[in-house]
Design goal:
Layout (H helix, E strand, L loop, with lengths): L6 H17 L2 H5 L5 H12 L7 H8 L3 H13 L3 E6 L2 E9 L1 H21 L5 H19 L3
Helix pairs in contact: 3-6, 4-5
């Protein structure tokens, strides 16, 4: 009996290859202290620079528990990537803001991620890219849904 491939294994292998690809860039070596999670958070904060982004927003976006995100943010603060700042409208809330170092990492990562995305989808039509994204989104929804 022929064994079918496992979707999770394939996704993990692709994830490892993406990490390796990013690490091959000269600037990728500079930002080795920033983990994959750090990169996604930095990217999200950069894209939403004109909005107040809080820990809870990141917990929901990345589907992680409060304690996990708290630890990630603490380490990112220690590395100098971001700071927590009070907001005027609620003393209990602290928004997350990129530091100069965080912005430098973001700038380097943008070109690397763009190049890597182009390489990943080099032979894909726009329709295939749309379908892939739709299927990946469906996989995520399946895992997030209580069955």
């Amino acid at each position: 009996m022929e064994q079918r491939f496992r979707i999770g294994s394939e996704i993990k292998a692709i994830s490892n290859l993406i990490k390796r690809e990013i690490g091959n860039y000269d600037s990728g070596k500079y930002i080795e202290e920033a983990t994959g999670n750090n990169m996604f958070i930095i990217g999200h904060l950069a894209r939403h620079r004109d909005e107040d982004v809080f820990q809870k927003d990141l917990e929901e976006l990345f589907s992680v528990r409060r304690s996990t995100m708290s630890g990630i943010i603490l380490r990112m603060e220690q590395k100098g990537f971001l700071v927590r700042e009070s907001v005027e409208y609620d003393a209990r809330l602290k928004k997350l803001v990129l530091t100069e170092k965080g912005w430098q990492i973001h700038e380097m990562m943008e070109s690397i991620v763009t190049d890597t995305e182009k390489k990943l989808t080099a032979d894909f039509s726009e329709e295939q890219k749309d379908m892939l994204f739709l299927l990946l989104k469906k996989l995520r929804q399946n895992l997030e849904t209580d069955v």
